[in-house]
Amino acid sequence: MPAYYLDPMVTQVNRLPARARRFMPEQVRQLHDGWTFRLFDRPEDCGDFCAPELDDTGYAPIRVPANWQVEGFGKPIYTNYVYPWPLDGENGVDGVADPWRVPKDNPNGCYRLWFDADAPTDGQRVLLRFDGVETAYELYVNGEFVGYAEDSKLASEFDVTDFISQGRNLLALRVFTYATSSYLEDQDYWYLCGIHRPVALITLPQNHIEDLTVRAVADRHGQGGALSVDVRVARVPGFSEQTVHVKLLDESGALVAEQTAPVAKQAQYSQLSVPTASTARVD
């Protein structure tokens, strides 16, 4: 497995593009109960943490979402403008940070969660969403590598449709305290690591709305305004043969306007006046 956390050119592997959060309640299953955890001093100490056959009796229950330091594992670190590791020897040069070096004493938190699920049908897509994990992490499902992500205060989504099997499944994470991204997130800051925001398994139809962009501009000289909505759909076979219908309702629920637009098949040179690929624009 490549050491992505040491590569400043890599901020994600297999992470889906960021988007606005928009799901129906029945599509979302929160994964907050039943996690176990073990803290290791260095990445090379973690062993087969993601293996389904691992004897994990050395792992302890942990609350999710939460930072592992406030759950009794390790110690919280506060730093103002200096980096929270020695800046000499292998970690720096002449007492000065040497980007993008990361200290070898880099505590790793390994998480494991067993959960039951139905195998996805041909018409379904299954995503795993992490709303926040600090600092960087590798994700595995049933012992197979799914992806990697940094940006500890941003959500990440991964497509796990091909990894989920019928019955019992294992979700495993290895969370790094330090990564090359630490050089960008280290300002007047508490280092509190782990899965600190919600985790969800999301089941969607293959054909679904992926994202929305809404632009509303008021007429400062009148009582009206202009509304533009870009609706991006999943790029599945036949996506460009679809249309999107948008309705605008007032606060009482009365119809103000409605319009239908086709989904664009491919992007144009500029998206200022036309939508990008797999997107319909309603003005």
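That was protein one. Protein two is written in the same sequence-then-structure order:
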Amino acid sequence: NNVIEGNIIYGNGSGGGAAINLDGVQDSLIRNNLLYDNHSTGIVLYVGFAAEPSTNNVVTNNTVVMAEDARWALLMWNGSSGNVIANNILLNRNPNRGSIDVDSSSLPAYSANNILQDKFSLDGYSGSFADWQAFSGGQDVLSLVIPQTSVATELNNLFVDPSAGDFHLRAGSAAIDVGDPFHTAATDIFGHARPSGAGIDIGAFEAGQFSPTVRFESADWIGYEFIGMAEIAVTRSGDTEQPLAVQVRSIAGITDGTASADDLQGVDGYLVFRPGESRKTFRIFIHDDAAIESREAVRLDLRVVGDPTGLIPTDQVGDPTGLIPTDQVGDPTGVGDPVGVGDPIPWIPTDQATLHLVSDDAWRPGTIEFDSRSISVNEADGVATITVRRTGGSSGEVS
């Protein structure tokens, strides 16, 4: 019941060892991984040190392109049966190797809507795609098969620039819109929604134009005075491929009865998402005072600023909030003073949340009672002094 996804693995295996080794892994999902220029085997389902073989897994929407000295793109051996192999690109630059190495004990398997080349290993013997279909009981009817001598050419037809490690699908790629919709992920390797066109794309990348959605993970957050800190999360979805900067700030005193600037250490700074990152956090420090207070609120604003000038560092060493302060970097909007008076672009938040501050100072008004239940006085004194005592607390005024 594992999920192995979103990995980019390249240049490994010179001394042996698969890029993704699934020794004994069962009932798991292997999806949206990019494996290229690895020198041993790509994805391996078998039994080595495990107690049982690798069975009943779903291997879908992976792009595997092996190096010129590599073994096989996919291996299934030692009784690793019941696996689903769908929507994968399994290609090999090694002219003496190919897409799949499988033994008869690892059948049955469901295999469909893959891009393969015309070379297989079947029980240790070299075979063609036709041999694979006969061996497997007719699998990969809906798959695309590339002649062994055309792999180099077809790699350039499928991908934008495979020699430079760019395995985005080229316009007009044969992998576009022809995937199996029943064995696919909802998004691709960088969170792009599937499908973006008329159908699911084969491989780890979905073709199309995408834009990110960035928001607070929750609309409401709780911060306790006695803890002294609240951690706030910001999430990115829809597109995680590129670096992205967002600016967050706290707004205290927005209406009567809400928190003031004395209740917390305000924040105003940047969070930077690296490629592939979908969640970032920052901290707001809360002042623990002795005042008796009801629950107070702080508004949190967020706006996406990008980083077109490249001036925002990816790390802020020593900053306890986890934010990059606005006064320590260049202006990513390119207009100067992005949150100050001189900003010609209004600070319009793209998302908002509320931080609720909870005081740990209990309201203890105490008990009011007469000092004595019986008071005696002489008429000649003219005045009676009666004492009222307050016990068990003295918070606020009582009458």
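The longest strand covers residues 229-237. Keep this in mind for the problem set.
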